[in-house]
Structure formats: C-alpha cells, structure tokens
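Good morning N.,

You mentioned wanting to compare the apo and holo forms, so I went ahead and generated the holo version with adenosine-5'-triphosphate. This is what I fed in:
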Amino acid sequence: MDSVLVHYQEIALKGKNRPWFIARLVKNLRVATSDLDVRGVRALVGRIELVLGPSATWDEVRQRLKRVFGIANFSRAGRTDLDLDHLASAILDDLGDRAVPSFRISARRADKRFPLTSPEIEREVGGRIKGARGWNVDLENPALDINIEMLPAEAFYHFGNERGAGGLPTGVSGTVVCLLSGGIDSPIAAWRLMKRGCTVQFVHFHSYPMLSRASQEKARELVALLTRFQLRSRLHLVAFGEIQRQVVLTVPPPVRVVVYRRLMFRIAERIARQVGAQALVTGEVVGQVASQTLENLNVINAVVSLPVLRPLIGMDKEEIIAEAERLGTYPISIIPDQDCCQLFTPRHPVTRGRAPDIELAEQALRIDDVVGSAAAAAAVEDFRFPVVKYKVRSEV
Ligand code: ATP
Ligand code: MG
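and this is what came out, ligand included:
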C-alpha cells in the first residue's frame, strides 16, 4: 500500500474558496513531509493522495499528518486501475495471511459515471474476496471493513482511517500576533488560532539582562514545538526590563501591572502592523489573575485598535492544562523561569483599574518613543519544520 488518502473537512472547505483551500492543504502536506520519502502529493476529486516511496515509514508519515490542519481523516491506501478483478486481487495481496471472522466492503464513487453503482461494486468485489478466503459477509458489525473509493481514473482501497487534526489549512485565514509568555495559557491560545487557519507570529517580552535568559529559552522551545503544526514561525523577542525600570520610577505600585500590560499590547500592536497581522492573541481568561478582571481587560484593551482574540476566555485552568498536556507544551511551560512580570511586580495590584487613573500614571512615560524603539529593537528569529537536510547530489 504505497498511498495515503487524505480526506479534508468537507463542510469547512465548501464554497468559492475551496480550490484555494485545497491548494494550500496540498502545499502544507508537501512541506510537512518534505524530509520523508514522499514522491508526490496529488489533488484528486474530493481527496488528496500522497504517493509514498519505498523508504517512507508509515509511522512517521502518520505522525506528520496528525498535525496538519484541514484534514478530517486519512488512511494508508492501495491504488489500482478501475478493473474490479485487479482491485480485488490487489486487496487480497495486501490482506496477506490476515484471517478474520467477517468482513464488509464499503464502496464510494467520486465519479457517478462509473457503470456500476456502489452496492454493485460492493457485491462484485465482496464476492471475489469471499470466494478466495471463505470469510462471512457481515454488513452490521464486521471484523474488517474494506473501503473502496472509485475515482474517475483509478480506484483506492483501505482498511480503516485515522482522525485528522480538523480545522482549516494553515495560511488560509491570515496572520495574527500572539503574545507568548512562558506560561501555560498563551501557547494553547496560539494553537487554537493555528487550528483555524491563521499563521501565528509570536511576541515574547523578556527582562534580560536584569533577569536570566530562561524565559527566552522557554519561548523558543514553545515556538519550536508549535511550529510542528504551522511549519513556519516567527518569534519577536522584545527587551522589556528597561521599560519596566522606567515604569517603576514614575508609576504607583498598584497600577504597575496594568501599565506593563498596556505597554505590551501597544508594542505587540506596533509589530503586528509591521508584519501585516490583523489581530492580537492572548491567553487571557476572565478572572484568572488580577490583571484579567473585566475592568482590567477593558483598560488594557483600550490602548489598541486591532481586535484582541482570547480563545481561552471562558476556560478553567484544568481544561487548559489538559490541552497543554495533550499538545506537549505543558512540561515546557512549567519549567521555572523569572517571568518579566515578576520583576517589579507589586504585592497588591489593582483589580479594577480605571482609565483616568491609569492614563494619569502613564503621563510621565514617553509612550510613543518607548513603544517605537522597543518594537524596532526586537530580535527576530525564524523557525521551520521539518528541518530539511538537503541531500548532496553526487557529481556525474
Ligand atoms: P500564561 O500562562 O499564558 O503566561 P498567565 O496566567 O501567566 O498566562 P498573565 O501573566 O496575566 O497570565 O498574562 C496574560 C497574557 O498576557 C498571556 O496569556 C500572554 O498572552 C500575555 N503575556 C504575559 N506575559 C507575557 C510576556 N512576558 N511576553 C508575551 N506575552 C505575555
Ligand atoms: Mg504568564
């Protein structure tokens, strides 16, 4: 079985964007498997075929496909021409010495011009398998389900499928900028937007050299992990320590956290505009910490005009942790680091910041300069998955 048959999210991909979505999915599949022995990725009627070379291992291909957004399900499959004798004997070959008490054939026609109906194909092929193996046909609860898909010029068969990641193909929904702390929530928020087809760029605020480089390392590890889903990522590392020092000099302790966060939002928005992103993303959750009361979310939000997407807004911490464990970000997120917000953080931050008070507190800061220079000085790092090792061609 040298093919993989990929079925995409039918309902999501309907409409006039469909060809473009499919082209994007094909491209993403090519990139996601670019270091494996995949000989081709072909868009067929209603599905996509990956043609495997002899050294592609199913396990590796499977791992990759599990993370490609836009896939409903996929199967390792065999391909033949439309001749039912050829089809049945290919199926028998691939079944090898497998023995089952019962089986069923489920046929689908992508091309209704095929002279036999689906039930007729099922009977024809089923009869040949039963004749060769003597297995019972069980339409209700078979031990083995043999699927046949008849396309205009070829037939595919497979013995079951795996669930895909769902969502929309990476790149079809535009770019967003995620504020990525080293914590548990923001990587999950980023992943949620990736799943909806967004390309996520990351902004991380760190306090190096006042604090260690640990938070930057965590941000890099998180971005590297998330890049396995979106294949290309950009991380902007913004030095925030000096800005915090200035805040401490002039801003009263209770409102400092809100002021920090307003500065983060402004800087992130500046970067977002530079890269053509259409929204900001955060891991904020109503009531999780003092800065995430509705009052504070409001005063923080007020300084930006791009929409701020908060995909985790109504989730409990346990639910977010479960998702972080599933994605593998959790062990990275809980590595202790000195988050920049710990630096100069007052003991009793306001929970109901009022805009006039905050604006007054900010007056001594040269906001525009601070924001402009922080954004301009950000260090930019690019990530790719897979890291393709180019084959060196021998000279003839
Ligand atoms: P997380 O687990 O995502 O760090 P949190 O519970 O620690 O969230 P806060 O520290 O209040 O909550 O941060 C709320 C959101 O602000 C984060 O989800 C993230 O989007 C953003 N954020 C916080 N700190 C940083 C940072 N150092 N760099 C970039 N974004 C940050
Ligand atoms: Mg945090």
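The CA atoms of residues 246 and 388 lie 44 Å apart.

Happy to go through it together on a call whenever suits you.

Best,
F.
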